[in-house]
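Box 4.2: Ligand-aware structure prediction
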Amino acid sequence: MSDDRSVMTPVAAVVVMAAGAGTRMKSAVPKVLHKVAGKSMISLAVDAADALTPDRLVVVVGHGREQVSSHLADIAPHVVVAVQEQQLGTGDAVRAGLAALGEVDGEVVVTSGDVPLLAGETLIALVEAHRRDGNAVTVLTATVPDPTGYGRIIRSADQVDRIVEQADAAPDELQIGEINSGIYTFDAAALRAGIASLTTGNAQGEFYLTDVITHARSQGGRVGAWLLSDHLQTEGVNDRIQLAERNAEANRRILRHWMAEGVTVIDPATTWVHAEVDLATDVTLLPGTSLEGATSVATGATIGPDTTLIDVEVGEGATVTRSHAELATIAAGATVGPFSYLRPGTELGAAGKIGAFVETKKAVIGAGTKVPHLTYCGDAILGEGVNIGAGTIFANYDGVTKSTTVVGDNSFVGSDSVLVAPVEIAPGAYVAAGSTITSAVGPGELAVARGQQRNIAGWVARKRPGSKSEASARQAMAERDAVQEDDK
Ligand code: UD1
Ligand code: CA
């Protein structure tokens, strides 16, 4: 079946309507650029359309056209952009799309840019039904719990007689639960003729695309409906409430897909996985995990709880606990967290460790190297088997430029050190705890860069007389003297 589908005869064109104002979003961002599952709604519409391998794909833009066109140029350069100057209705939107196409023969599929759950397979099934039944027009319909606002499907015998809009419907027509999804396959000639026949003689004074059906029927064309039982696929987005609902549903579908593929999701209600994320079998996602962008997680890895990964690659068997990471790679068997912050350019090697309260940025950390506690590691290249002591700071910024610190294989940096970049610590070198390193340390050397310890006897008795410290010191000295007396 899927083989048949991939070699399905392409349709001549898909027209995606996306010119509407989206007023109810109350947004400076055009509606179709709002995101569902981490992707713009228009890119999801283009993805679904691409499943039909159309000869040409047109997106009709209007409101916010500069933003929508430049986004399309980035993500889908194959798309032809048509401009609808004024939003005179869906019929006018398709007219603008056809004008941009010029000559079209065969089938034209029409969809909308704000129906984010629509699957490519559904469009394929719609076109297959259209071909099988020899239709002039095939409408994708659904039975929804609340049909308010949608056009209703008026059937006669096994055909669609017409579609009546909410604003134009008689009371008995408003009772009909089968709605127009706004997604269709048209015979190109019937569409062109129907569009040419449209008028604005209706309650909203718009050119209704749905009136093409009435015209096709009057010309003796067959109009069918393809009733989709999964009605959520046809639900659009008009406001932020629906945007959140579609996002939640998209996420549920994505999680169901990955669970079916062998991923454990402990709490689907608090786990978010974007559309382009890739997960392997036996990955475990703990509550509060958000996997975004082009993140991928290899088999056996455990992510979470309360972890956000954006464009991160996680290797086999790695664990990432209560952390935030972006544009980073975490190799097989490595551990991150709890409470780590991996910024862009972090590359943690196999079985390496970035531990609690560690921030990294442009840090290449070799296999088996550990940065376990309370460290800032920026602009650093760490070899293999390095140990970075607690509280070490890679001082990478002098207020003007950023510089790099290099730490060679199997070196050891003591706790509370400051490595002032640019500086290089050779393989097999040691840095004493509390050092501030400003110049190179050679292989096998111990660098000690801190004040020599001095103990000033009697200081407390002179400077803090009568204090608890003085009392404790006096007692300790008396005990020490008594021990020395016994030893004589
Ligand atoms: C339309 C259908 C209705 C169907 C509903 C499904 C008509 C007359 N009615 O309703 O039967 O149930 O879709 O959602 O077609 N658009 C433009 N230019 C315009 C007008 C709209 O590009 O001038 C675009 C919108 O951006 C949107 C899509 O067309 O992507 C649908 O527009 P919308 O106003 O939501 O649909 P209705 O006309 O109310
Ligand atoms: Ca409308």
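In the box above, the bound molecule is uridine-diphosphate-N-acetylglucosamine. The first strand starts at residue 13 and ends at 18.
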